[in-house]
Amino acid sequence: MQYVGRFAPTPSGPLHFGSLVTALASWLDARSHQGKWLVRIEDLDPPREMPGASDRILQSLEDLGLTWDGPVIYQSQRSEAYSAALENLQNQGHAFPCSCTRKELAGVTPYPGYCRQTPRHPERPHAWRFAVNPELIAEWLDGVQGKQSWPLQQAGDVVIKRKDGFWAYQLAVLVDDLEQDITHVVRGIDLLDSTPWQINLLNGLQPDAGPFHYSHLPVIVNAAGQKLSKQNLAPAIETRNASELLYRALLALNQPVLKDWREEKPQDLLNLAVSQWQLSRVPAVTHLQEESIPTCTSTD
Asked: What is the pLDDT of residues 141-160, one digit of tens each?
């Protein structure tokens, strides 16, 4: 089976250093396996999107030499596929309408199943939830974090379509991964706790599909210990310093780089990085502070 990986940014702002580290790791893992690397724009939440961010992200990837295979997929154009998936889950009895408000669920974790049999308040607008099987334990061997075992009883029933009509991440990401024949998912550790839901959803949508290979990377944080994100005003990367950025991202991933790689053209640097890529070297720590990643030293 051919390796197929993907990078799926949210267009709530331009590419920042934390996103670059994730994109680079995903790209290198795919290229080192002579695999395909796809890009998908997760534009499911219009209120959070920044005008022009999708184009800026794609341009940044191109400037860095992180080329992709096939067309870019936009989740905002995929409602028909998500509707079919929801209908499939409804027909199997795996999805149910939920009228609970955030106020009613405040401090209640996991979701207690108030609406599993019937909505408590049928007159209200409702979301749709996936009924997690509480008897199952989601287990997988993570490429970075090692063996994982998550009782689904602790996860609760996850929202797959919101009350405002927008599709939820958990459903959309799985539908797209299945349709694009994704085999390997390399992403940040902040999404580790989404994996049990997605494994259970996979069983509901396509029981005969093999599980994806997951690898969850440490999160890059700022000096205040906050994850680099658009919400925390992480600065956009400046791709005119492409080789320096790629070099620092490789250091964050604990790869065996040489200091003179910083002087290489981006494509030549990437070719060297592919030849030396070792996923096993990526640290399993929960976060790396951006300021601690040197700009001119070597790990050789």
From this structure: 999 999 999 999 889 999 99
| Three-state SS sequence of 186-250 | EEEHHHHHHHHHHHHHHHHHCCCCCCCEEEEECEEECCCCCECCCCCCCCECCHHHHHHHHHHHH
pTM over 0.85: yes
Closest CA to 23 of 228, 164, 201: 228
Using alpha carbons only, give the angle 298, 235, 49 rounded to the nearest 5 degrees: 130
Q: Which helix (H) or strand (E) holds 87?
A: helix 79-91
Give the pLDDT of residue 299.
37
* Angstrom distance (rounded) from CA 43 to CA 182: 19
Say which amino acid occupies 203. N
Structural domains of the chain, ranges and CATH numbers in brackets: 4-76+218-292 (3.40.50.620)
Task: For residue range 99-117, list pLDDT tens digits in order.
Answer: 999 999 998 889 999 999 9
Check whether 288 has a pLDDT greater than 90. Answer: no
Q: Name every residue whose Cβ is closer than 8 Å to that of residue 258 and which is 6 or more positions away in sequence.
A: 298, 300
* DSSP percent split of the chain into helix, strand, coil, nearest 5: 40, 20, 40
Q: How do 146-151 and 213-217 pair as beta strands?
A: unpaired
State residue 130 phi and psi, 5-degree precision: -90, 125
Q: How far is CA 283 from CA 43, 73, 216, 252, in A?
A: 30, 30, 10, 9
